[in-house]
Amino acid sequence: MEITPEIVKRVATNARIKLKEEEIKKFAAEMQEILDAFKKLSEVKTEDVEPSFHPTEIKNITREDKPGKCLDREKALSLTPHRTDKYFKGPKIL
Fold it and tell me: Which of 10, 36, 53, 71 has the CB geometry, 3.0–4.6 Å to 76, for a possible disulfide?
């Protein structure tokens, strides 16, 4: 497929942007380069390559929970101005 100035004009119209004539020529060439790059990618032989959804293996790294001393309720509530009675106060959602 060849990118013509008419295609660039149609894309610009759909995107609701105005382009000057020199910009249309410039973008036509740039879009053609992009299509050519994808054409090269589609020529790569991948039949024997197993699909990969991530470039590296994803693995959860967790640590073991260690029980420790916690703040008591009064101490924790004393550290915030956002409280109502004996509860933390959060922002309204609805």
Answer: 71
